Each structure stands twice: as C-alpha cells, then as structure tokens.
Automatic annotation (TrEMBL):
Catalyzes the oxidation of glucose 6-phosphate to 6-phosphogluconolactone. The lineage of its organism: Bacteria, Pseudomonadati, Pseudomonadota, Alphaproteobacteria, Acetobacterales. This is Glucose-6-phosphate 1-dehydrogenase. Keywords: Carbohydrate metabolism, Glucose metabolism, NADP, Oxidoreductase. Pfam families: G6PD_C, G6PD_N. Residues 1-20 are annotated as: Disordered. InterPro entries: G6P_DH, G6P_DH_C, G6P_DH_NAD-bd, NAD(P)-bd_dom_sf. Its EC number is 1.1.1.49. Residues 208-502 form the Glucose-6-phosphate dehydrogenase C-terminal domain.
Length: 505
C-alpha cells in the first residue's frame, strides 16, 4: 500500500464537536485494553461528556475488552468509579450516568490471540453488523499487528470498521514501518486512525485558525519577521507508574517524535489548499521532510539531554529518576532541548527550539513566536522583543507582547504590555478534553485530526540519528535537580544564538 494512500477526508470545520454538534448515529466501539489507565482516565470520561450532550445514541455499545476475568457488572462499577474521579460532570448528572453505564459492556479476551474465545465479542457485534464499528487498541505497540490479525481472522472487519492506534507507533523507523505494514494488510489507510491527543487539543488546532484566518499574522509568518520559535512541553510530575515503559522510551521517543513534531509542523506548514485530511497532512509531511538532518556534529552542538535527580519542591525532598524507577542506573533522558532548522524559503535561518522535561519547575505547554527587532533604535529604552505566545496548557489562550508609551513616566519611556486572550473566559464554556473530539471524529470517519503513515515514518527518519548519536554518547547525559528549570546547557543552546527561553513567572 502506498505511503500516501488515504481519502481527502472531510473539511476541518466539520470536526467541530462542541455542545451543538448534531446527534451521532449508533455505533459499536471496542476498547482493547479496557482495564488500563488510559481507558479509565480519558476514554470513558470523554464518551460520558459526549453522551450527556446528546451526541451518542442510547443503543450505542462501548465494549471493553481485556484479559482480566471480570463480569459486566464489576466492570461497570470500575467505570462508575473512574467517572466519579475523572469526570467533572459525573456527580451532578446521576441520571445520565446510569443511562451511560448501560451502554458499557465487557468481554474477557486476549485480543492479540486468534485462538482465544472470541464468541462473546462476536455475539455483541453481530446484533447490528451494518453500523460503524471501531477497534481502539490501547495496548503496547508490539501487540498492534497481532490484534489486527486476530480481528481479521474472526471476520470482524466490515466496510465501516476503523482501527485506532495509540502512540508510539514503534520505537524506530523499522518497527514503525512493520506496524504500518502489518495493520495495513487488513485495514485500508482510510480505516486506520493513528491518534495523537495533542492534535485533539483545541489550542493546537487553533494554530491553524490564528494563521490562516488572520492575514495580519500570516503575512509576517516567515523568516523576514520571525527571529525564532520555541515549542515547550514541561511537567512537574515524575515518571510515576509509567517508569518501566518510560525507561524504554525516554523524552525523545515519548514527546518529540509525535507531540512536538506535530506542533512544529502545524506552526511551520504552508497554507493547505483546503482544510481536508489529505491537504493538511500533505503540508505537514513537507515540513517533516524539510527538517535539516541531524549528524554527529549537530547532535553534539544542538541537543541537550538530561535526567532529573533528587531536589526540593515546596520545601520537600523529591526523589530522582533512578529512585522513582527503582534502579541503580539508566541512560534514559527525562529532559531534552533541540535546535532544529527547516530547509524552506519561508523558514531559512530561523531556529526552532524544542524542549520537554519531567519534574520541572512548572507545568506548561506553549509555542512562542519571537519577532525580529527594529533594525535601528529611535527610543532610549531597549524594548523587549514582540512575542506571540500560544498557550496549549494550562490557561489555554494566546497573548501578544507589545511596547507602549508609559503614561506615568516622564519623557518618552516605553513599557511592555500584553494583549491577552484566555479561551475559557472568552468563550465561557467548559474546555473539552482532547479525546472528546478525537473519539467522535473516529466515529464520523474524519481523519483530519489523525496522523498518516508517511508522517510517522518521516518523524522517525529525523529522530533516529539523534537516538543513535546519544547511544554513542556524542552528547553526554547531564542531570538537573527535580523542581528546577533543567540543565544550564539548555539555556546556553539559545544564548549562543542571542536568545533566551521564555519562562513562566
């Protein structure tokens, strides 16, 4: 199957799943790995929110599949507990909650095993074989192909069947291609939905609206006006229960290969012909392919990797990564910073700085566009650079920093001011979780918010040399105290170019 195969998809405007979204036809949604953290924290609460908005029909089936030997009643109680903890609307909507739980079913099954007893699942799905059927595979990526094989062997793929694959798609280029090829033996490209919850965030989607619906911005969105771009995603928490997985992945695989490169491609892409799945993903792919390849020289000079050690947070000692992991040694990075370049006319000479880390001083995800200064100064004061900041989380919104005359100062003195928009305050509504949009988009068959196989493989082509270089210790591992801003070398990465990270105050 060709890497670019796939339908054009529906227009972006049709992906709006806000409170006024029309009622969806009944569907069957099978969650493989239904006892896991993702299902309980994100998937079931997302479905519940859409159900209480009237977007999910009463005879829809949400079928949990996992190896645990549970009855439907026990699983529904687990679902009830999860909704109580992770859905803000649950407690105030008891009647809706009871109706929703009636949609939830459970089948004990190892879905990666063709020889297992599939009859209970087949029976549930046989009631309405003509309607949309989704298999959401929330398991380890190594089970994706075996699960697709088993689904196909039991004749459960229909014309309206879709399969959803969670990131990461593989651990390198070869394994990603093997997964894409293996799943692609049974599902056409337009039936495969590779999910990245970052793209489901309204603030990430709003990058396109800010650029292409506001000509005043798009006309300065280039190397003539922009000095550099920062993309940051930091967390205050450590690895927690994800330690065993995280130690095999690290920040580069876990965050950059998917989330941050997807954000970068939306920031840097050329205007698509239309906001359709094919056109949008074609333009993102061009950016991923235009990234300047990383060699050993640039890996040594343009990357930073580090691991958190014990530190003080709010006056209390916090364990380091090795203590969290319960190990004596690990070469896995929990922080990284990378200087990237995009080889296009629009972005010639503009550095893109990517930064992510765990156990950092602040939790924030944002994009910072810093504009070039005036070529000559006419004021005595040296104004701060104009910055457009796109806040992905928390406090979702956008702000633009400007220099203004200070009305309280004598003479012509400048003062930095911000034009700030908080999305929650502006729109006055509950901010939907990204999975709400994504799950309903799968049901509609709309691939705009999902990643095509050639995007996945292009990302791995750029990432893999960095992984290899780090494995050879081309850039040595550093450490940083838990609760800090990361290693000093990350600041030097920008300082060498005359810039500084924008930090939360």
């Amino acid at each position: 199957m060709a890497e670019n195969a796939g339908k054009a998809g529906t227009a972006w405007a049709e992906t709006d799943t806000g409170p006024n979204e029309s009622h969806q036809a009944s569907f069957d949604f099978v969650i493989v790995g239904a006892t896991g953290d993702l299902t309980m924290r994100k998937l079931l609460p997302a479905f519940f929110e859409r159900f209480r908005m009237g977007q999910i029909a009463d005879d829809t089936k949400i079928i949990g599949v996992a190896r645990s030997d549970l009855s439907v009643e026990v699983y529904r109680e687990r679902a009830r507990s999860a909704l109580s903890e992770f859905s803000a609307s649950f407690a105030s909507d008891n009647k809706d909650a009871e109706k929703f739980l009636e949609l939830v079913h459970y089948v004990s099954l190892d879905a990666s095993d063709t020889s297992a007893e599939w009859r209970p699942l087949e029976t549930l799905l046989s009631v309405n074989p003509q309607r949309v059927r989704v298999f959401y595979v929330a398991t380890a990526p190594k089970l994706y192909v075996a699960t697709a094989d088993a689904i196909a062997d039991h004749g459960l793929i229909t014309a309206t069947t879709r399969i959803v694959l969670e990131k990461p798609i593989g651990t390198d280029f070869v394994s990603a291609r093997a997964i894409n090829d293996g799943v692609g033996r049974h599902f056409a490209e337009e039936q495969i939905f590779r999910i990245d919850h970052y793209i489901g965030k309204q603030t990430v989607q709003n990058i396109l609206a800010l650029r292409f619906a506001n000509p005043i911005l798009e006309r300065v969105w280039n190397a003539d006006s922009i000095a550099h771009v920062q993309i940051t995603a930091t967390e205050t928490v450590g690895v927690g229960k994800r330690g065993p997985y995280y130690d095999t992945a690290g920040a580069l695989r876990d965050m950059v290969q998917n989330h941050l490169l997807q954000v970068l491609s939306l920031v840097a892409m050329e205007p698509p012909t239309a906001l359709s799945a094919m056109d949008l993903r074609d333009e993102k792919l061009k950016i991923l392919r235009a990234l300047k390849p990383m060699d050993k020289v640039s890996i040594a000079s343009d990357t930073v990797r580090a691991q958190y050690v014990a530190g003080m947070v709010d006056g209390k000692r916090v364990d380091g990564y090795l203590e969290d992991l319960g190990s004596d040694a690990s070469n896995t990075e929990t922080f990284l910073a990378i200087r990237a370049e995009i080889r296009t006319t629009r972005w010639a000479g503009v550095p893109f700085y990517l930064r992510t880390g765990k156990r950092m001083a602040h939790k924030e995800s944002e994009v910072v566009i810093e504009f070039r200064p005036q070529p000559w100064a006419i004021f005595k004061d040296t104004p701060e650079p104009n910055r457009l900041v796109l806040r992905i989380q928390p406090d979702e919104g956008v702000s633009l920093s400007l220099s203004s005359k200070d009305p309280l100062a004598e003479g012509f003195r400048l003062r930095d001011v911000n034009l700030d928009v908080s999305y929650i305050k502006t729109f006055g509504t509950r901010y939907p979780d990204s999975y709400e949009d994504l799950l309903m988009a799968v049901v509609r068959g709309d691939q705009v918010l999902f990643i095509r196989r050639d995007e996945v493989q292009a990302s791995w082509r750029w990432i893999e040399p960095v992984l290899d270089g780090w494995a050879e210790n081309v850039r040595p591992m550093e450490t940083y105290p838990a609760g800090s801003r990361g290693p000093a070398s990350a600041d030097e990465l920008l300082r060498d170019d005359g810039f500084v990270w924008k930090e939360k105050t």
